[in-house]
Amino acid sequence: AGTVVYENSTEASKAVAKEIADLIKVKEAQKQPCILGLATGSSPKGLYAELVRLHKEEGLSFKNVVSFNLDEYYPMEPDSINSYVRFMKELLFDQVDILPENCHIPDGTLSKEGIADYCSQYEAKIKALGGIDLQILGIGGNGHIGFNESGSLQNSKTRLVALDHITRVAASNDFSGLDNTPRTAITLGVKAIMEAKRVILMAWGERKSNIIKASIEGEVTNRVPASYLQEHNNATFVLDKAAASKLT
Ligand code: F6R
Q1: Of 62, 142, 177, 180, which is most buried, counting CB atoms within 10 Å of its CB?
Q2: Where is each Glucosamine/galactosamine-6-phosphate isomerase domain found (predicted)?
Q3: pLDDT tens figures, 165-201
């Protein structure tokens, strides 16, 4: 995997947005759908802002884009303030011309018994479209990608997972306290992430610097799922200076 370091997250986000815009246009010219794997959280906010700007000011169309988000809390109502459905609508989907039926986010309202089938269908839909062209990732303080926490295997499937304590603590502000923070989530599995043709992991700030070092320079281990990207043939860690500050 490669590493690219930018002066700040704004510059970095613009560069990632440019790559996505170029890919969308190439696919459009080929009359092909562009399959994007999308993340939520703070890291991709600048990216989505720039994609919205490219749509509004430079005419970038998302009509040929089909998106699959990485994860959603479980249980979660789509109109809840903390749902990833709401996040994606507010920051991207409602601000561009992507077709609502082309936006996929794991369903936080399923019955427990329905989850396994739903997850295999989620993966099957991606496969039927020819796979993810470009996957956007953030990274958790524990090295999680999507909600594939420490211990997730490289061949793990899309599934219901228990969130790590550290992940719940990181989210607890949004949920006004740990007691109200979900304990589980549905996540795209590591296998599906690794099958994406291109992967971009974005990380900003000093608080990510230790886990970035472990992911890029440490051993490939299930303790740090982001370290699996070392074995992906087209993955790039896009960092700001602070996140890269511990790299040798
Ligand atoms: C979100 C996701 C998570 C986040 C990660 C970093 O869809 O899959 O893996 O990318 O927890 O979150 P932020 O960007 O808020 O630091």
Answers
A1: 62
A2: 8-236
A3: 999 999 999 999 999 999 999 999 999 999 999 999 9
Distance 213 CA to ligand 1 centre (A): 17
Number of structural domains the chain divides into: 1
| Residue numbers of the domain that contains 31 | 2-240
| Ligand 1: centre distance to CA 31 (Å) | 32
Global pTM reads 0.98
Q: CA–CA separation, 136 vs 70, rounded Å? A: 9
Neighbouring CB atoms inside 10 A of 130's CB total 12
The pLDDT of residue 1: 84
Catalytic residues: 149
Q: Is the CB of 152 under 6 A from ligand 1?
A: no
The CATH code of the domain that includes 211 is: 3.40.50.1360
